[in-house]
Amino acid sequence: MAKKTAWQDSAPVFAALGDATRLKLLAALCAGGALSIAQLTTGTAITRQAVTKHLLVLADAGLVRDSWQGRERLWELEPSRLDEARRSLDAIAAQWDRALARLKHFVER
Question: Do strands 72-77 and 35-36 pair parallel, antiparallel, or not at all (unpaired)?
């Protein structure tokens, strides 16, 4: 079996981030620490069931984790997966920079 690349490892993260609702949930978790479903749905038109489904997608991608505090399930950001995705994007950007530098060098000759 072929070894997975960093980009392949990051694909689930980018897929999970490709939804506006999930991005809003991540932003809320970045700003507020561990939050319950009730806290995440306050002031929105999104149902608790929908938020739970979105959080499970984010959890499958490794972007959030849950814990129980009594009878309440709390969700919090898992920043390490975002860091990995950022490093993948940085690697892609570096490749583009090198390709553009080669093109510039070729055009200027």
Answer: antiparallel
